[in-house]
UniProtKB/TrEMBL annotation:
<protein>
    <submittedName>
        <fullName>Sugar phosphate isomerase/epimerase</fullName>
    </submittedName>
</protein>
<dbReference type="InterPro" id="IPR013022">
    <property type="entry name" value="Xyl_isomerase-like_TIM-brl"/>
</dbReference>
<dbReference type="InterPro" id="IPR050312">
    <property type="entry name" value="IolE/XylAMocC-like"/>
</dbReference>
<feature type="domain" description="Xylose isomerase-like TIM barrel">
    <location>
        <begin position="40"/>
        <end position="269"/>
    </location>
</feature>
<dbReference type="InterPro" id="IPR036237">
    <property type="entry name" value="Xyl_isomerase-like_sf"/>
</dbReference>
<keyword id="KW-0413">Isomerase</keyword>
<dbReference type="Pfam" id="PF01261">
    <property type="entry name" value="AP_endonuc_2"/>
</dbReference>
<dbReference type="GO" id="GO:0016853">
    <property type="term" value="F:isomerase activity"/>
</dbReference>
Length: 279
């Protein structure tokens, strides 16, 4: 396995304010210092990084700044994360425009993976047609990714119409997109992450690892929450997945680099105990 880290911990996630009035310009952003995140992730010993589309877009006009920082830190940009509502026909073309831009940015900076979340919950309630629309949209995301030499994966997320195992089953049947299990979101949505990974072994093409506690709800560094991460890692290995494990932590009440170090130390032990090599 190869170990990577998501830059979200440096600043937490926000959305670009332009998106309030312009859907095509609504990027995810971690509002910390991106270059500091890259440097400190590399210092901990990770070899890959995942970034939000908005943070990669910061360097669109000066790409050498980011590529030089990645090289100096011994990192590669593994994946770019974006998302959309995907169920509203009128704004879908602008959302897909943004997904296409995220794919272009990912390819420009050498990433091979595009990760997407989304599927809005309507105030009036979710309809079966919403899942049809999400499924069709995710197939279009696959096409966009492939046009740029990328592989697209879908990330179930709290607050969307794909939170729990039953909802995930619906979308896995209605789209060909690969599956990015996020261990904490799957558990918080009422599922057993290891069991869910074992249910879709052929679909797992990207992985987000994070821990959490249910009461009071909080995402945590690996090993500090309630998840059975050894069983989760075993399920990932059983699926034949032998690639990037991307550790993610939305925010941390302390030094984000220390959170990254805690998770790496714990994950290395879990992998060693399971006899799984990592680099």
């Amino acid at each position: 396995m190869k170990l990577g880290y998501c830059s979200i911990t440096w600043g937490g996630v926000v959305g670009h304010p332009a998106g309030v009035t312009s859907v095509k310009d609504l990027f995810y952003l971690a509002h910390g210092d991106t270059l500091r995140a890259v440097r400190e992730i590399g210092e901990v010993g990770y070899r890959g990084v995942e970034m939000f589309d908005g943070n990669v877009a910061e360097f669109e006009g000066e790409p050498r700044v980011l590529t030089d920082a990645l090289q100096a830190s011994g990192l590669e940009l593994v994946s770019v994360y974006t998302g959309a509502n995907f169920i509203y026909a009128d704004i879908l073309p602008d959302e897909l425009h943004r997904v296409r831009r995220a794919a272009q940015l990912a390819a420009t900076f050498g990433a091979k993976r595009l990760v997407v979340g989304g599927g809005a919950r309507r105030a009036a309630g979710t309809t079966d047609e919403d899942y049809d629309r999400l499924g069709r949209s995710l197939d279009t995301v696959c096409e966009i990714a492939e046009e740029h030499g990328l592989e697209a994966s879908y990330h179930p997320h709290l607050g969307t119409i794909v939170e729990n195992p039953d909802e995930l089953e619906i979308i896995m049947k209605r789209s060909r997109i690969a599956f990015c299990p996020d261990t904490a979101h799957l558990a918080a949505g009422g599922g057993d992450p290891a069991e869910i990974i074992r249910r879709y072994p052929d679909r797992v093409k990207h992985v987000h690892l994070k821990d959490f506690q249910p009461e009071p709800f909080n995402f945590l560094p690996l090993g500090e929450g309630v998840l059975d991460l050894p069983d989760i890692v075993s399920a990932i290995a059983e699926a034949g997945y032998d690639s990037w494990l991307m550790v993610e932590l939305d925010e941390y009440d302390g030094d984000p680099q220390e959170a990254a170090r805690i998770s790496r130390n714990y994950l290395e032990k879990v992998l060693a105990d399971a006899g799984i090599p990592c680099n």
